[in-house]
Amino acid sequence: MRQEGGRGHHAVGAISEADHVNSIIAASRADLCAIAHPHLANPAWTLTEATSRLPGQPWPHQYQSAKSRMEATSSARRRKRAGPGLAQVAAQKKSAKAWWLSGEASMRW
Q1: In a domain? residue 63
Q2: Which alpha helices (H) appear in the chain, and where do they start and end?
Q3: How many structural domains are present in the chain?
């Protein structure tokens, strides 16, 4: 429909990450992506995503005072999304196995 209509199309709903926006635009599924939910949590979401991908981006004067806090919050969110590291997962599996082999699991049932 987009190729045949000759008009611009936009994508809305369930778009919450910059990578998703990039894939929609790159695949020519839409000309514009409307993003709402990330902006409710962080009004400067577009700015923080742009600066995380292009570190030398200048910040507008209005945001200079909050720049360090916004950068720290955005990097903490990225770490949280990434989940635990491989060493942490291995340690969790090892402790779960030790608990199971100790017999405590059968005592609880």
Answers
A1: yes
A2: 2-5, 18-26, 37-41, 45-53, 67-82, 86-101, 104-108
A3: 1
